[in-house]
Specification:
Layout: H1 2-23, H2 45-59, H3 63-76, H4 105-118, H5 125-141, H6 174-182, H7 188-194, E1 202-204, H8 222-229, E2 243-245, H9 258-264, H10 271-274, H11 280-291, H12 293-307
Antiparallel strand pairs: 1-2
Length: 329
Amino acid sequence: MAMATSTTCNLAVLLATVMAAALSTPSMAQYPLRYNFYNFTCPQAEAMVRNVTEAIITKDCTMGAALVRLFFHDCFVRGCDASILLYPSSSNPSTEKKAIALRGYDVVNQIKAAVEAVCPGVVSCADILAFAARDSAVVSGGFTSFAMPSGRRDGTVSNFFEVFGNIPSPTFQLKDLIKNFATKGLTVDDLVTLSGAHSFGQAHCSFFNGRLYPTVDPTMNATFAAALRTVCPPPGSNAGNPVVNNNRVTDPDVLSNQYYSNLGSGQVLFVSDQQLMNTTDTAAKVASNAADPAAWMGRFAAALVKMGQIQVLTGTAGQVRKLCYATNS
């Protein structure tokens, strides 16, 4: 028990330090994000999001990963403006949503409806998604709850074609990953830290089949690869595109530093994952995160906060949508 208490205290101190550093990151916003943005306009907003998110993940433990992934995709395309949440419409049939198969849209709408019931027209979908991603780390990863600054507003544009130039490919080489993250104001540390989200969630075989066929990638653990080949058919076989868990070593629905141990043993899915072992610097960061779960949790929380500031709309920019899946008429 003494060790558990010490770890919790150390994590709390680390979180306080890294949150301050994350908020010092320059933002392109008209007005900076701030903590407790809704204190006066909707003081129950964050608690409402937290309660609904916890209930959702308790009912379906895969939803934690889905919400974190939605937040990542939202922030990397047009910034954290909830553009990923817009459904196709007659005026815009080609939204980001159609470019890549993601889960969690319905549950974000569910969270939004709960918040709208108590504070109509006040809390943006962009902030709801940020809060839900934070709360997913708490529920699915056992993180100590950490502050997520808010004040984001919702965008009115969502473009199918912008996804491909902004979301990092699972086949990226390390130099491409570093360049992609740098365009978002994120560092190599952030890249390695946020990649830990691949400790939970799912992926289609098509995203990594090139590592299995025609021959197995020599950097992949042979036993791990053999098991994947029993699930994932060869490309072009017309045998479907099954979904597998990102983490096939331990609990696939827990956000943890297990990802880094999996990396060290060659038991990760994507080329982009394994690339983190290709330089002394990134491999050292992987080893550090594998060895110290509390330190990684602090880094991940700070990186999530930092990512949540990418190209945000604030002040009078954008709008606060009444429905997350449609712009206001």
